[in-house]
Write a structure and sequence with these properties.
Layout: H1 17-35, E1 40-44, H2 49-62, E2 67-71, H3 79-91, E3 96-98, H4 102-107, H5 110-121, E4 131-136, E5 149-154, E6 160-164, H6 167-195, E7 197-199, H7 205-210, H8 231-240, H9 245-248, H10 263-268, H11 272-284, H12 288-295, H13 299-315, H14 317-320
Parallel strand pairs: 1-2, 1-7, 2-3
Antiparallel strand pairs: 4-5, 5-6
Helix pairs in contact: 1-2, 2-8, 5-6, 12-13
Amino acid sequence: MKATVPFTKDMLTIPEVPAYIDSLCRKIRTDVHEHLHRRGGVIGVSGGIDSSVTLALTVRALGNNNVIALMLPEKDSSPESLEYGKMLAEQFHVPYYIEHITGALEGFQCYARRDQAVKKVFPQYDPNKHTFKIGQNEGAIETSLPSVFYITLVDEKGEEQRKRLPAPQFLKIIASSNFKQRTRMSMLYHYAESHHYAVIGTANKHEINQGFFVKNGDGSEDILPIGNLYKTQVYQLAEYLSIPEQIIHRTPTTDTYPAEQTQEEFFFQLPFQELDLLWHAYEKGYEAEAVAGAVNKTPERVANIFASFRRKQQTTDYQRKPPIIYDGKD
């Protein structure tokens, strides 16, 4: 279906933020108390904008005495994440707990399995001397070329080496790193079940629709209050909800690999301001020509981005599928 409303840059602006927040909080209350029959909510707090807004909304909906903030750092986590998480919980007067999951991940051999794959690409890799990150080829999303993943090794002097990441090693690194999200989700449900609470998810629209989550990890929450919101809309709510400025101005990161890495570099490939507009245009059926001027790109580049979105949805469709329940019929 083709869109008929002219495409403009401000079409994602929430016109009445207070009314929207009130409506969202009513739904959180109804879902937690009446649909899930739980007394409160547990939220994994990362010190990022999405979990911060989700915490603030849940406190408004359920009251600060019925919300738990859980921080789940491991040895690759930025110290800033824990610092900001505690600051947020204290601002909203929410009880918080810190569970270091490094030991659990070592038990799963998360780091060892991952490091084996890294050494296949960089034999000199030493986790005591180097850090690394993985990301896609810059600018590929605006071309007709498929995205390719690269691994970047960073030594003690900050000097970088970059190589293309072969598929077997890429898959092993991802599978090993996914222990982190699945371990965190196990701990979130431990706290939720201990208090008869629901697990409140923090994913936004892009993360859900483009597959930037781990199946049975950070994709397994009970409710997703901001799951239909674009990143720019999350920031709109953050301003109204008095989220700390340090968090609002923090660059969104994956906080997964030893070297610092942005979400844009690893997965989305576009600044979120552009990403929001382009995804909205793609989802609503706008032609590339109708969008190009508003985002300062040629129609060809916009068309390439739309094609990339389609590929991403197709390749991550598996992650959004629920279990297939057999009913005894062919």
